[in-house]
Amino acid sequence: MSNKIPKHDRVIKSIGHKVQYCRKVKGLTQEELADKINKTVDTISNIERGVFGVKIETLFDISEALEIELYDLFTDIKSISKKPSKKINNLIQKISSQESEVVSAIEKIVNEVCKVVK
């Protein structure tokens, strides 16, 4: 008998690692994520450890709570961290529809905020 891990187990574990990574990046505890999607902490823990498969509906809820696209859970973690969040994309759309004077004012504000946050 081979010690090789079946593909579906590797995928389940990979998804779990991505859920955990994105949850931590977002600054959420397992309990906070569980509350957001109406699941138990044990369920979140099991998903993150890849203990069992997870319904696509639950993955959808998790992606919404973490403000990522559902497909991000099936892609490389490096590509998730380099992609702007939904909030950033929404801001870009709102700003790009403004007149140049407004965009310049927003740029100045953002630059000042970034100085303070650093």
Topology of this structure?
Elements: H1 7-26, H2 30-37, H3 41-49, H4 56-65, H5 77-82, H6 86-96, H7 100-117
Helix pairs in contact: 1-3, 2-3
What can you tell me about this protein's structure?
This protein is mainly alpha-helical. The protein folds into two domains: 7-82, lambda repressor-like DNA-binding domains (434 Repressor (Amino-terminal Domain), Orthogonal Bundle); 86-117, no CATH class. Helices cover 69% and strands 0% of the residues. It contains seven helices and no strands. Helix 2 crosses helix 3. The longest helix is centred in the first third of the chain and has 20 residues, at 7-26. The model has no long low-confidence stretch (mean pLDDT 85).
Q: What CATH architecture of the largest domain would you give? A: Orthogonal Bundle
Number of helices: 7
The sequence of SSEs as H and E is: HHHHHHH
The end-to-end span amounts to 55 Å
Biggest pleated sheet? none
CATH top level label of the largest domain:
Mainly Alpha
**What class, by secondary structure content?**
mainly alpha
Mean pLDDT: 85
Task: List how many beta strands DSSP finds.
Answer: 0
- Round the Cα radius of gyration to an integer and report it: 18 Å
The CATH superfamily of the largest domain appears as lambda repressor-like DNA-binding domains
Which consecutive residue ranges, at least 5 long each, have pLDDT under 50?
none
Q: What do we call the CATH topology of the largest domain? A: 434 Repressor (Amino-terminal Domain)
Number of domains: 2
> What global shape is seen?
elongated
What is the percent of helical residues?
55-70%
Strand coverage percent: under 5%
